[in-house]
Amino acid sequence: KAGVTQTPRYLIKTRGQQVTLSCSPISGHRSVSWYQQTPGQGLQFLFEYFSETQRNKGNFPGRFSGRQFSNSRSEMNVSTLELGDSALYLCASSIDRGNEKLFFGSGTQLSVL
Amino acid sequence: GESVGLHLPTLSVQEGDNSIINCAYSNSASDYFIWYKQESGKGPQFIIDIRSNMDKRQGQRVTVLLNKTVKHLSLQIAATQPGDSAVYFCAENGSGNTGKLIFGQGTTLQVKP
Questions:
Q1: SS3 assignment, position A83
Q2: Lesser CB count within 10 Å: N end or C end of chain A?
Q3: Which of the pair, B8 or B102, is modelled with greater confidence?
Q4: CA of B74 to nearest chain A CA: how many angstroms apart?
Q5: Which of A26, A43, A101 to mutate to test the interface with B (most CBs of B within 10 A)?
Q6: Contacts of A43 in chain B (CB under 8 A)
Q7: What angle is formed at CA B13 by the lines to CA B12 and CA B19, rounded to 5 degrees?
């Protein structure tokens, strides 16, 4: 069974731009979560989606948003990029809502210049 | 606030020795704990998990121990191999059933040949 797939693998953007990251969960998994990983803050929860609805949200500004499609695939968007948004963005899937056994993708490394 | 911590940022062991990575958690309501391994350039990889109704759980070459009295979690790796070199994260589910994990800062395991 294929794992969690994230695209693109790397992104370079400039301040003020926006970016969209994509995630395909493991087949049969219906919940998708997003995490931001930085050397200073570690892994921080962004949001969780289930049945195309955001179920839980971390402490991030409204510039960070996401959505989930009917096939469970998910996208996250960051608008008006700031230098501090440079990070590894990780998507994780789990089989069902509230299931904390998360399986992660390899992430999208975002660099904001 | 909620936090999950690891006692040592870096652990260096000799190949073939056993490794013990420790983690302290602060939320008494957490009832699910999970260990991840993250190699350079990859996302966190599931190693083993444990629920609060257990004290110990074994996998292949790995054992997780949970001491709820002192809110302590440990990961033991038997016969450590060079391929075990990575950053290890513990995580807890906090108040639970949200699909959200709270991660510690990570311990880097270095295996010396």
A1: helix
A2: N
A3: B102
A4: 18
A5: A43
A6: 44, 89, 91, 103
A7: 105
Both tokens assigned to A109: 């490394």
Is the distance from CB of A79 to CB of A63 less than 8 angstroms? yes
Residue type, B98: T
Contact call for residues A84 and A64 (beta carbons, < 8 A): no
Mean pLDDT of A17-43: 95
The reply to whether residue B43 touches residue A90, judged by beta carbons under 8 angstroms, is yes
Among the partner-chain residues A45, A101, A104, the one whose CB lies closest to the CB of B44 is: A104
What is the Cα–Cα distance from A94 to A29, expressed in whole angstroms? 5
Q: pLDDT, tens digit, for every residue of B14-52? A: 999 999 999 998 888 899 999 999 999 899 999 999 999
Per this entry, what is the length of chain A? 113
Q: Which residue has the tokens 């050397």?
A: A39
Pick A48's closest partner by Cβ from B43, B91, B100.
Answer: B100
